[in-house]
User: Which sequence fits this backbone?
């Protein structure tokens, strides 16, 4: 099987690449920095004797994404599944500070994925099968003062994947969406968080086990689903009071 | 960024530090450029605080653990410096190749081994890791990316090997691997009547595919009565498939509430250990690769037993021509001061002196002590003996050593300091260790 991983060089993307390689899948890896990709490609090829292609693409830049998609149609036609373990955050992501980074955060977290899927769906339709895996965030459950654009773009992604599921409900195109709580990635490294961080390695194994299933929407770790459910039950006037209390 | 409390393995130092863990190449650059002072951290398994400094940034390098290039024909490999030595060996041993100069704990990283110029069980054949290093890639906050080798930036290459990470972050290392003729060992055990007897026997051995070291008792009328372990590679088993080594990440930094090592418990354990190998265990045994190469793996309780105050390891490299006189005076010093020595071991080592590397041709003595006043007083006297006989104490092992002792024991101390200062006059890369010894 051939899989495309968009956002492959660190965190969950890296663990997905190793998990799929261990299971002898050939991979196409996309990330921003050629140096990271080269290191992963050589390591995976030496260890697992599989075929890896890698492309340095700035996923925060619309032009870079479009250029890659137009230049690599043949490569994309061999893909059996695509995974989007991509997330971009900024310390400036608040209402007054964000300025120039709005488009970058929105491109990386949402629009880049839409562009890729737009290109890949016709390929999967022709093959009459394929897998698309997206990753949302618990940050999208509730509005927030920090990481505003990030959480908004993840909420958009959630809605987009619901639409994809609705579109391909009766087909062999598998649409899967994982909503993630705290993960043990560099974004959370050495940070004091109120709830425990989950292992990206375990998540990658779980994603691989589910890879042939259709229409999945799961929380990881699972108990974030309960939290999300309770948040959805709270009336907005109470949420307003909570915001006031926190401030 | 939050602070984290961290301990050195010997528990001599407990401080708050900042830690960042890069996992992209641009993060090495960005994190380094954003700090005034920093140092790189591998497994943080050095006895001394070599990978951190109070209120400074440590770059935890464990995500850089990939194989960059492997050439089986020429027996070379380029790997990122954060790779654990056990992971590196798991890859190379499948190809009948290995890196012999590995310290006794499997989770130590390659970068840490290079920065400490480590030796292994075959120190009498293969010397230190320096002999296998072909080139190094470092990132330095002001000098940027630098390739180091005998042909390129040689002076910095020499400073980096055994340079305690003070020339910048070691990012990847090209190694020349050595063919291995088997994955398992046949271990034979010999009795020795004294430390002198152990040295005599070790000196006469042919070390081809043989790793020999002694374990000696410390509470005995005959100073150093004990055992020699000879681990010989079992060439008959070369054709067996290599079994991947797996090690649990046992927390080295745990400790018991009390120090359990005292005169009585040491006597008790040494007596059990000696009798186990002389009476119960066969004189010839088959041993696995991981048991021989990583003797501390799975035996972390040994360190925990030193309690909250921790321990001191004194590793001394005695030039061959000084061994007899040093041993006589050491024996006298021990008889007079009666220190409580938990572990005493002897092995041969080969190499050349340069800068602050623990390397020369001579006999290597290792002593472990619990931290109490009597032992500390003894160690102060041992320092004087080292100075007198040009004995090198290992800087990476002993957290007590001060600048004065090291200056007198390492002929190249001032050269190292001068060359490092010419390369980095702001002392950007520094640790508790480098500050203590004044470099």
Assistant:
């Amino acid at each position: 099987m051939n899989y495309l991983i968009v956002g492959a060089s660190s965190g969950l993307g890296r663990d997905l690449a190793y998990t799929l390689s261990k299971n002898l899948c050939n991979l196409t890896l996309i990330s921003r920095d050629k140096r990271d990709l080269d290191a992963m490609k050589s390591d995976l090829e030496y260890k697992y004797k599989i075929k890896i292609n890698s492309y340095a693409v700035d996923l925060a830049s619309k032009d870079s994404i479009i250029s890659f998609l137009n230049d690599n149609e043949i490569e994309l036609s061999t893909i059996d599944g695509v995974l989007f373990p991509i997330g971009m955050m900024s310390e400036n992501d608040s209402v007054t500070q964000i300025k120039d980074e709005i488009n970058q955060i929105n491109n990386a977290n949402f629009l880049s994925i839409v562009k890729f899927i737009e290109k890949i769906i016709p390929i999967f339709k022709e093959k009459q099968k394929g897998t698309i895996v997206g990753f949302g965030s618990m940050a999208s459950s509730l509005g927030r003062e920090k990481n505003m654009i990030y959480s908004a773009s993840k909420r958009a992604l959630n809605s987009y994947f619901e639409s994809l599921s609705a579109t391909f409900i009766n087909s062999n195109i598998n649409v899967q969406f994982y909503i993630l709580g705290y993960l043990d990635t560099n974004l959370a490294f050495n940070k004091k968080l109120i709830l425990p961080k989950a292992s990206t390695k375990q998540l990658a194994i779980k994603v691989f086990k589910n890879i042939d299933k259709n229409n999945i929407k799961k929380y990881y770790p699972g108990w974030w689903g309960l939290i999300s459910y309770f948040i959805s039950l709270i009336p907005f006037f109470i949420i307003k009071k909570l915001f006031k209390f926190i401030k | 960024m939050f602070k984290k409390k961290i301990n050195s393995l010997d528990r001599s130092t407990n401080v708050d530090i900042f830690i960042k863990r890069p996992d992209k190449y641009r993060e090495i650059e960005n994190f380094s450029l954003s700090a005034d002072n920093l140092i790189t951290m591998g497994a943080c398994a050095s006895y001394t605080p070599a990978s951190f400094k109070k209120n400074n940034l440590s770059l935890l390098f464990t995500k850089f653990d990939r194989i960059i290039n492997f050439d089986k024909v020429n027996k070379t490999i380029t790997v990122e410096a954060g790779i654990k030595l056990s992971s590196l060996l798991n890859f190379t041993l499948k190809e009948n190749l290995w890196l012999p100069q590995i310290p006794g704990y499997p989770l130590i990283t390659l970068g840490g081994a290079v920065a400490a110029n480590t030796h292994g069980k075959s120190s009498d054949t293969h010397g230190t890791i320096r002999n296998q290093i072909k080139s190094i890639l470092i990132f330095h906050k002001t000098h940027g990316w630098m390739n180091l080798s005998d042909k390129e930036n040689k002076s910095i290459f020499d400073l980096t090997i055994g340079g305690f990470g003070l020339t910048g972050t070691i990012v990847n290392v090209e190694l020349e691997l050595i063919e291995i003729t088997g994955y398992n060992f046949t271990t034979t055990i010999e009795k020795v009547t004294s430390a002198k007897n152990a040295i005599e026997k070790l000196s006469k051995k042919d070390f081809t595919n043989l790793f020999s070291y002694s374990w000696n008792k410390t509470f005995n009328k005959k100073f150093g009565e004990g055992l020699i372990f000879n681990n010989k590679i079992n060439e008959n088993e070369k054709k067996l498939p290599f079994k991947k080594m797996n090690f649990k990440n046992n927390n080295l930094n745990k400790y018991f509430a009390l120090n359990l090592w005292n005169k009585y418990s040491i006597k008790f354990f040494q007596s059990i250990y000696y009798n186990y190998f002389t009476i119960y265990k066969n004189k010839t045994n088959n041993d696995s690769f991981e048991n021989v190469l990583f003797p501390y793996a799975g035996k972390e309780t040994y360190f925990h037993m030193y309690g909250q105050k921790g321990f001191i390891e004194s590793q001394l490299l005695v030039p061959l021509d000084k061994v007899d006189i040093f041993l006589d005076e050491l024996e006298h010093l021990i008889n007079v001061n009666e220190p409580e020595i938990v572990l005493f071991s002897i092995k041969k080592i080969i190499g050349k002196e340069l800068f602050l590397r623990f390397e020369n041709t001579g006999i290597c003595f290792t002593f472990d002590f619990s931290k109490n006043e009597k032992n500390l007083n003894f160690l102060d006297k041992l320092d004087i003996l080292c100075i007198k006989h040009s004995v090198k104490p290992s800087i990476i092992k002993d957290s007590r050593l001060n600048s004065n002792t090291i200056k007198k024991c390492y002929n190249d101390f001032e050269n190292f300091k001068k060359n490092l200062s010419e390369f980095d006059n702001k002392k950007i890369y520094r640790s508790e260790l480098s500050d203590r010894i004044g470099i």
